[in-house]
Design brief:
The chain has about 210 residues and is mostly helical. About 75% of the residues lie in helices and about 0% in strands.
Length: about 210
């Protein structure tokens, strides 16, 4: 009896889940056709129907990770500064699910740096994230909650800060538990407005 489209889609979902489980347990470096087949309880021959090469598997895994990252529930405190802070909190490994996602992203950097096409895809993803942050910075500036300045630069600085904090938290989770990550982020954000206030104090009075 021939397989139906529904059977194919169901199998593809099973493969996707196996890919995700391997990445969560072993990191990106542990992603191979053999490990995915073992997780799926299938042969590598079956997987080559979906992924004829290791690179095809890697590309699919990154697309799957991006989809899952974007589909995660997000904080929503409104607009302006609160929305900007929420977006940065959503990047940090504050929950087991977010920790798994970040572990996979960080472990994928090695493969991306060695492959120009994968590197370009990563650059696109981080640029899109900065664009979303920039929109929130602009809204916060319009409300007077963040100081004037190039919103793209502010967004780039904030993204760089949280990505650095992600790495610290992944390698030293005991030293950077969720509460400390939040405290460090809030201190960083407070420094943005503090610098603006210090400029006001230095300005000559009219």
């Amino acid at each position: 009896m021939p397989r139906t489209k529904g059977d194919h889609e169901a199998r593809r979902r099973d493969v996707s889940e196996a890919v995700w489980q391997v990445m969560a347990a072993r990191g990106f470096a542990g992603l191979t056709l053999r490990t995915v087949a073992a997780e799926l309880g299938a042969t590598t021959g079956l997987l080559t129907h979906y992924f004829p090469t290791k690179r095809a598997l890697v590309e699919y895994a990154l697309d799957l990770l991006e989809q899952r990252t974007l589909a995660r529930p997000r904080r929503d405190s409104g607009r302006g500064y609160a929305a900007f802070r929420d977006a940065l909190l959503d990047i940090l490994p504050l929950t087991p699910e977010a920790t798994d996602s970040n572990r996979i992203w960080v472990s994928s950097w090695d493969a991306a740096l060695a492959d120009p096409d994968l590197s370009a895809d990563h650059a696109r993803r981080y640029a899109a994230s900065r664009d979303r942050l920039t929109e929130r910075v602009i809204a916060a500036q319009e409300l007077g909650e963040l100081p004037p300045g190039d919103p793209a630069d502010i967004a780039a600085g904030a993204q760089s800060f949280v990505l650095g904090l992600v790495v610290q938290a992944l390698f030293a989770p005991a030293g950077f538990p969720p509460q400390r990550q939040i405290q460090l982020l809030d201190a960083y954000l407070a420094s943005l407005t503090a610098r603006d206030h210090s400029r006001d104090r230095r300005s000559p009075r009219s």
